[in-house]
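Two proteins, back to back. First:
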Amino acid sequence: MSTFKPIKVGIMGFKNGHVTGMFDAMRFNPMFEVVAVSFDAKTRNLLEERYGDARLFDKYDVFYNDADMVKSHPELELCVCGGSNAEHMGQFRLCAENKINAIMMKVPTLNIAEYDEMLRLEKESGIKVSIELEMRWYAAVERVKSLIKSGVLGEITAINAYNYSHFPLWWNKWMNQPKEIYGSVVPLRAGDSRFRGGAMTDHPHLFDLVRYITESEFESVYTEVAPNMRENSAVEDMVYIIGRMKNGVIVSLDPSYANREYEQSNVIYAKDRLSHYPKSVQVEMSVCGTKGGIISDLYNPNTTEQLRFEDYEYRVNPRFYDISGTRKMYMEEFARAIRGGTEYKPAVSMAEHKKTMQVINACYESISTGKPVNL
């Protein structure tokens, strides 16, 4: 029986909230060996306070500059590019130029010229790239997609979904800085004091999941913003989108920071935080078809299916929810692709994910113009 040689990993940034989950998954998984981390001193202090362990990083080689880490560790095979969104381009370039495979956050960049440069670097370097969009692996998402493909719901006519969360500005302050979250400082619209880079930038999952389960692309979007819930928010925190897919499905999406921070602060790091209400994150989706419908809580283990309108037959499917489990699945698949030298077909590729970034930019354009935008 062959032994899997652990992938040597470096972690850049630690600013994205999902990086800590990846760090935990990797340091306790024998398929990975975290050898070095890079972040600024303030981020290190915050992480040690959050983990409650002042010596947490003593076992790793710590750097305060990404380039220094890469230069000092030529053996690195994989890096997690976990800085602010504005830092991703520089981190990705380091990976490509040094032939290091990369895990990118859910928003590699919203600057399409930068995105095209990333795609060029990916192709020329030959590195493998994984996009951190773990919701594609959720059992409830797969169930919704399988029902649609089976035809049991008939012709799909409409999809409604929301992704509510708290606004991480209270513990990730860079997420309230337009330059760091959006990549540039762009006003939402004339006469509005807010800027692009809020809830819609932070919640690309809805756009990605709609594209995934319908196997279609957005044809047009119309977007509106409401007054912010938070006086200190520099970006949009309440936003709503109406769109149409190229296959005719109408979608309505709400990726708002709709949950208050103060209600979350005492349970956000608790192991049972998903059982509290309001939860720190809520994601639900409903799909309507000519023969039936489905309502799914994608971030919890319950899915309700109404398969026949005429007799109101329904059933509840319990699905085990474990975000660490889904993250572990796609990370281990990525590790096997790196080690085995096999062709890697990620759940979502860089080239495909560019389309989601273009949809989000179209939504911002709609806010700016007050009109629908065709893609």
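And the second protein:
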Amino acid sequence: MLDEMKRTDLFHEYYAQWVRIYKEGAIRKVTLDKYLMTQAWLEKLIPDLKICEITRITYQQLLNDYAKNHERQTTMDFHHQLKGAILDAVDEGLIERDPTRKVIIKGKPPAEKKIKYLNQFELHTLLLTLDLGRDVNWDWFILLVAKTGMRFSEALALTPKDFDFPRQSLSISKTWDYKGDGGFLPTKNKSSIRKIEIDWQTVVQFSELLRGLPENEPIFVKKDKVYNSTVNDVLERHCNAAKVPVISIHGLRHTHASLLLFAGVSIGSVARRLGHASMTTTQKTYLHIIHELENQDVDLVMRSLSSLS
């Protein structure tokens, strides 16, 4: 237990116990893995630092050393994963004063990340190469992600019961644990629980495809384990066949959002359809597209003004 720890024990050992007691079983595995990664970095950066030696200076130096190889946001996450354990150590009298006070977060400048997506013509050409037969396959999966913008794990968790064909909608209320042992998991956040409107053609296609399938069992997951790379390989073959840029399944989600934005759909509506926690996430992700649209708006304004006499 944590109360058996002494001030002279190693800090990374204290942190390991803290994670085991307070985090295991209380947070999702994907989040727990981040805490375990932080623990691994502590063992690498401060293998011999004792709990009582954690001061503002030693803690700032730890963050500085971590920041040498990480972007600022990643360093901020590292700090937040440590802070809870450190404040508990302060409360328990293992550390005299809060060493996290007034820390300065550094880090490498973020790498420019331009998302990969297809334009409308390229997507149409890609979809024409799909083999949409009478049985469920990964081509149907690709079509559905392209039409809805769902996350990979959300699409894997779909069951026939999630389709409301009369109302032309699809309910997203769970994800599939494809990184672990399988099974249903909660959505990424509360905003991810949503209904997505689907077009009439998708309604017709999937109402026929899903006929007779068990209502509460995943449509696309069979007995074998599902790998993201497997589906991306299928998509890559279709991209090559269609002679369009190769994108990933996540790139299909970007494609879906991009086409909606270029069609004039509001950022708020796109955010809700994608299940983003806020419009800020959507704006940050699709900033370059929004800039393109703003440039188009400026051109439109100038043409409108020049026509006035």
